[in-house]
Amino acid sequence: MKMFRITAIISFVVVLILFFIAGDYYRDSLKESKPVDSAAEKKVLRILAPYETTADRKMLEDVANQYTRMEGNPRVEIIFVSKNDFKKEICMNLDQDQLTDLIICDNSIMPALINLNVLRDISGYIEETSKVSHYFQRQWNNTRSDGKYYGIPFTLDPYVLIWNKSLFKKHNVSVPENWADLKAAARKVQEVGISGIGIGAKQSEEVSAFFIQMLYTTGGSIREINGEGGRKVFELLSYLKMNNLLPEQCINWNQLDLTNKFIDGEVAMMINNLSALSVIKAGGIDFEVGIAAVPFEKKENYMFHGKNIGISVTADYEEAIQFLNYITQKNIVRQVAEATESIPVQVDVEYNFADDGYAISREFIQKQKEHGIARSSLNSWFDISAAISDGIYQLLSETNPSIRTIADTMQDKVRIAIIEN
Asked: Going by C-beta distance under 8 Å and a sequence separation of 6 or more, which residues neighbour residue 359?
């Protein structure tokens, strides 16, 4: 019996030794067979993007994953931030010398990033590849400073009027083309629990873009906010507010919130970016949706709202350039437009919205491309948008606001911001 136990112990020890030897051999074989270009050893290309909707984020992730899977390319990592946190994220990364390789931003913000020395001059690349000819000339306005290029147009996402066709048919209301029509339509379609019209007035960049969109239809400009044009915009908002056509809660809504309120049937029509259609499309609505140009006061106004992409000053330049080469290919430009329900950013790339069931006209797209103007290209845009949004918030939140005082105060702040930069 004793001999049996000794034999069993010896056998167990032998098996244990063989197990460890086999384990070491297996680990060594894994090391030898591991591919040099494995995901763990790949370089990482980092992108900062102020995207909040599921469709926008998925679009960029899909593009990044496609690029990553291509042989020899680095892994693309995307850092998503809200529009509210975008400036803070940029400044923090700049202070810590930890900027991402590529930065996507609203086109109006790019001049401010150039002024902060965040973006790298890519003029040589733009000229060598003849990129300018693939886009409408005015799309480049917000990418340049002192004749140098610091970015490339990435999306074309204009403001439009989006309305609930079912409600409009029910009340026999025509699509508003001017501000008088807009006021009348808002009154007619409004019901208990349904506001006539909605805007997103919480986020400073969004409400400022909306304000400028409306301002330019009056013949005004950002340098004369307290002039006739600016006062007309304030008077329109005041009218909508005083007649309860604009929901009080809109001061707490960003554009995504606004879109969700529209999907839920709480808003009959809204002025929002065209890409709101991607959220509506995924929302499972039970009513038809209409899209048209934003109603105007004196003249139609088409603006190049959208995003640009640039390379940071700390980026791996060669790797970042290769990614720009990829996303500016026509098939990728079309993919981005289809995924986000926006207009293709390049001149000769087509996308038919009718395939998605939305009746946006080719005439609108052509006018957008042919007559669109860039939003004000100013280095001090962060300060300017803060001044505009403060004024709009005051107008919509106070009981009896003074339009004259708000307009004058806003103009003073904007003037100082322009002068100091």
From this structure: 290, 291, 353
Q: 381-397 and 228-242 helices cross at what angle (nearest 10)?
A: 40
- Cα 181 to Cα 272: distance, rounded to the nearest angstrom: 18
How high is the pLDDT of residue 31? 43
Tell me what pLDDT residue 357 has.
67
Helix %, strand %, coil % for the chain, to 5? Answer: 55, 15, 35
Specify the amino acid at residue 399: T
* Residue 311 backbone phi and psi in degrees, to 5: -105, 130
Are 223 and 297 in contact, with CB atoms under 8 Å apart? Answer: no
Q: How far is CA 363 from CA 153, 240, 355, 368, in A?
A: 22, 29, 16, 8
Report d(CA 271, CA 81) in Å as an integer. 23
CA distance 249 to 352: 35
Tell me the longest C-alpha to C-alpha distance in the chain: 109
Distances (CA, A) of 254 to 80, 210, 269, 375: 17, 12, 15, 20
Q: pLDDT per residue over 299-310, tens digit each?
A: 988 888 999 999
Residue 200 has what DSSP assignment? Answer: -
Reported as half-sphere exposure (CB side, CA atoms, 13 A), residue 114 has a value of 27
| List of E strands, 19-86 | 44-49, 75-80
pLDDT of 7 higher than 90 = no
Global pTM value: 0.86
H-state helical runs in 295-380? 317-327, 330-340, 362-371
Is the separation of the CB atoms in 410 and 388 below 8 Å? yes
Q: How many CB atoms lie within 10 A of CB 185?
A: 26
**Closest residue by Cα to residue 140 from 377, 340, 328, 354:** 377
Contact 230, 220 (CB under 8 A): yes
Helix (H, G, I), strand (E, B) or coil at 268: coil
Chain Cα centroid distance, residue 348: 22
